[in-house]
Amino acid sequence: MFGKLTWQAIPLNEPIPLVSGLAVYLLLFVLIVWVLAKGYGPYLWREWITSVDHKRIGVMYFLLGSVMLLRGFIDAIMLRAQQAMAFNAPGYLPPSHFDQIFSAHGTIMIFFVAMPFVIGLMNFAVPLQLGVRDVAFPTLNSVSFWLNAVGAFLVTLSLLVGEFSRTGWLPYPPLSELRYSPGVGIDYYCWAIQISGIGTVMTGVNFVTTILKLRAPGMNYTRMPMFCWTALASNLLIIAAFPVLTATLAMLLLDRYLGFHFFTDMYGGNSMMFMNLIWAWGHPEVYILVLPAFGIYSEVVSTFSGKPLFGYRSMIIATMAICIISFMVWLHHFFTMGAGPVVNAVFGIASMIIAVPTGVKIFNWMFTMYGGRVRYSSAMLWTIGFMVSFVVGGLTGVLLAVPAADFQLHNSMFLVAHFHNTIIPGVVFAVFAAYTYWFPKAFGFVLDERLGKWAFWLWFVGFWVAWAPGYVVGLEGMTRRLQHYDDPQWRPWLMLASVGVLIILAGIVAQVAQLVVSIRTREKRRDRTGDPWDGRSLEWATPSPPPAFNFAVLPNVKDQEPYWDIKQQARQAMQLVTPEPEYQAIEMPRNSPTGFVTAFFATVTGFALIWHIWWLVILGLLGAYVTFVVFAWRDHTEFVIPAEEVARIDRANRAARAERLRELAR
Amino acid sequence: MSTEVLRAPPDPYHLGHLPSAADAPPQSTGHGGGGPAPKRIVVGYGFWIFLLSDVIIFASFFAAYSVLFKATAGGPTAQQLFDLRNTAVQTAFLLLSTFTCGMASIAVGARSQKWTQIALLCTGVLGVAFLTLEAREFASFVARGAGPTRSAFLSSFFTLVGCHGVHVTAGVLWLGTMMAQFYAKGFRTDIRHRFLCFTLFWHALDIIWVAIFSLVYIVGTLPPEFLP
Amino acid sequence: MSEGRNGTLPEYEAGSYVGGDLPPGDSPDARAHSLRAEVGGYVTGLLLAMALTIASFWVPSTNFIYGPALAVALLVLAVAQMGIHLIFFLHITTDPDNTNNVMALAFGVLIVCLIVFGSIWVMIHMNQNMTPMPMEKMLQMQP
Asked: How many CB pairs under 8 A join B and C?
């Protein structure tokens, strides 16, 4: 009746997952009760859960990423603690747990922290920067978000009901086949990622269409902000790569559920093919994460240097070059698997070539800063921290791209240090910079700068203290994923790494404190004009937070930094230069519960598939199909914002900016 | 629903630039600087991009099939199993259904309810016929001990061709929904947009089938010494 | 019909928009309201596709093509037929109105080629470098 699900699925004899799972669900329960008791339920449903507004969805993605960052970081602390303790000792985590924790750490950080952060930021900023009202398919956008949330939910559920996979963040066969992993862990992993993967592909479709077909009048390709270019490249990669992930995990699931033989070690299966296909996704994936990060840095550097981005066209070429080449390097993740010297050499050279356009970008950012009036706000500090750190990470990457060197260093801590060195300064710092940069636009008040700087320095120092030892022990021979070790040479470095993790923890505490303090004192830090940083692109032309329709009239774009030019003209004339437009009513898409309801049925279906409860699978799929048909049968898809409302909001915006001009004149 | 003939994108927003400015002739919408594209283009292009992602799923299954083609684990091989006459009939059905789908889009363009329903019905019948033949082929393989669990080659064959079959099934369900919607709601704009997406989908399925019947079925029955 | 959100223009109609972008799948003939040209296009495509299909089935059963080149010949015929479908049924052209559609298609084709041919190339080398196995071990792998 309930498939494989029994009461034994709850880990009563394993204190760590039991306590943490109970804690998570207790917290969730208390939160829901509090929200409903305070009467926030209808507001949340109407304004957030059923919202199809890209700004709201972007904030929700960011929230999802933040919550999962805490979970993934706790996993990291547990791993570091185990390795600090387990010198000639068992440590406190039995191997089966340790395996689940490092698998969960990687899976959560890539799929449910970095992706939601990056997608959330693209959601929030891209339509505003393009000067349009929303993305191409707003309801699809909501569905994408909720499907991503389902994936995160299922992974979290594995804490309390069942177990998680033990194969690392990529489930290599034959270990991940049914024969060697008969439990539900791999199934939790696969279904969570398949479901959230559907959401991600839909995001890719949405944003490619938006960037290519929905831009303000006059915005040619060479007038788009750099963040939109990198978002385009990233979303093209999503469309190209995620289907490969879907197909490969589908093949693994077919092996596990229906006894197929794609990757089994008998009947002709070929386990090596899994590595080949999964990394054909896996390498573009890291560029999916890092390209928007580069775009964020471009925005921050030009804004806080007071100069246009240096070498805009070369940046475009570099971005698209990275996009294309990233699909030609995937074998460098398995040089040691035995493809032979010719194949290894080709992919090794390609991996080195891809460093060149990245170098072009770094030089362009430096040249943007040169000769500008640089303001060292916390967003700029994150950027400079990135530039300094990422170069090291990138160089170790080029080192690893030499197949002969990789034969020594594959799967060592050197490799682990390399990818943390590129992802943390590359993606995580960008997310934090963008958080500081766009928070005022989203919420109408600026974050506390002092705590922001504290957070940066703690993260920056903590990161280096945590990961520089990784390079050292890697060169000394330590492999990854060790539950215990006995080489005394590594011990001091691993202890140092644990200290680093604690420093990062302090940085996270500073960030939480920053948010709390900023909310408490928000009236003092209100962004009244909508342009707190003296910005250059179109999102700064809107009030903070922007109204649902973003722009009262779509701006007419004449060159690459449209808002900056209007602003300069206004400053010279000491008054607003654009006359008050003729306001018209605006049609906006209606909110829709489709996303949330689809997610509900996806959760049911995913859970039922994991536990082999077949009748529930059918019910879940039926529910999802019915939801889709109900949505497709809608007759009223839009609502109208009357012209007077549009006028009122825009006049307030214009008045605030006129006031600011008068202040500047004095 | 009025049919407006547009010359160039109008400028309904009176965007405030000085009238004496030498504006470049308005560029076409959606590409270059003409402003946001009309909804039909947005919907069609979005679905086109989605189709590309779907094609890449098929490419992954194709890659797996190519790699595992020789991994028959002592079981039946392609030469022993594939019946090219069945494949030829399936191909004929699908190709004709693509043609009738094209006729349906002409009928929709001409707003003829009768011809739309007839053409869509033909497309659906041909699609179901295709699926019936495929199901029979699969069943016969399984009955001969050549099911997907027999060997890696068979796993990859069933997955690749089966994935195509699942897509055709979804297409037939979509087709039924489109027939119902046209009948119930007429030629409303958003329904015509969805139909545009459907035609893209259906034609793409035939394109994938071209690759399958050539490179899976016909190549599979070539004498082994002719294969790379 | 009023303007949609995003300030999109009044509804574009297949067959009424003069100059500018085209969605994939819409034909310039539809724009020109020529029923004869439209049906003619589909019929031509159907006949060409049928010819190529028949050729694909026929070619392996004769000596027309050199044996080892048969697989390549079938690939070429398949690609040609896909082209026919794209041109006649999906109306993909090199018109500047179709540029976005062609670019997307080209990108897709590139990725497909990289994945399929890349995987085949890599896996052939991998398999070649597998340790040769004695016969008993091979049989052991097939219960």
From this structure: 211
